[in-house]
Amino acid sequence: MTIEMIDEAVRDGARLKEACQTVGIATTTLARWRAAPGAQDARRGPITRPANALTTEEEENALAMMNAPEHSSMSPDTLVPYLATLGLYVASQSTRVWISV
Asked: Which residues of the chain, if any, have pLDDT below 70?
């Protein structure tokens, strides 16, 4: 499926490297998949949860803080330093919860 999506994007004018980056693979990975007949996307993702991942409660707190009316117009890159000036640390700008909103 992934190979077909990349092929379609390239047919529609996208560059191969950017199409591969969009789906999260390297062009060398695509070449390896093409070399093996019948090969498909074999990525499985992480098997275990990272030790430093936010707990459910911390994630809910971060989302509530980010979606609060007084903060909803701020990007994570603005909100995190602003909260730090108030002595609050909820999560970093690169924490997954910020990206998933």
From this structure: 39-41, 96-101
